[in-house]
């Protein structure tokens, strides 16, 4: 269970990097050289990391006890470019990812003082 937060962080960052690669590939395809090689490589890579992010997010949400709306926001962040990293940083700053020392946004609704 301690590896799940690290996996979540790694996949969130990798998904954002794959977005950058795909956007770069699209730029070269449509603007610079009109060659599809970048998209052919980055497209499937991004697709796989997109799916991995969705799966790892659900696992992380269950393990950390995220509220439903936090999970929904995390999943929605898989769509816009680089939003997975923004969400990961936000979640980490609120104790939702990491050592779990404080979890103010838990599903259980209990408050810890």
UniProtKB/TrEMBL annotation:
Membrane topology note: Multi-pass membrane protein
Pfam family, one: DUF3817
Key words, A-Z: Cell membrane, Membrane, Transmembrane, Transmembrane helix
Compartments it resides in: Cell membrane
Domain DUF3817 as annotated: residue spans: 7-92
UniProt-listed InterPro entries: DUF3817_TM
Residues annotated as transmembrane: 7-31, 37-56, 68-87
CC terms in the record's Gene Ontology section: plasma membrane
NCBIfam families, alphabetized: integ_memb_HG
PANTHER family: MEMBRANE PROTEIN (PTHR40077:SF1), MEMBRANE PROTEIN-RELATED (PTHR40077)
Name by which UniProt lists this protein: Integral membrane protein
């Amino acid at each position: 269970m301690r590896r799940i937060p690290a996996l979540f962080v790694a996949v969130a960052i990798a998904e954002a990097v794959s977005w950058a690669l795909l956007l770069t590939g699209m730029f070269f395809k449509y603007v610079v050289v009109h060659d599809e090689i970048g998209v052919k490589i980055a497209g499937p890579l991004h697709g796989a990391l997109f799916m991995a992010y969705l799966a790892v997010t659900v696992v992380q949400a269950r393990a950390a006890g995220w509220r439903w709306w936090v999970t929904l926001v995390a999943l929605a962040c898989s769509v816009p470019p680089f939003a997975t990293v923004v969400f990961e940083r936000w979640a980490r700053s609120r104790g939702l990812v990491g050592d779990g020392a404080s979890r103010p946004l838990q599903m259980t609704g209990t408050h810890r003082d």
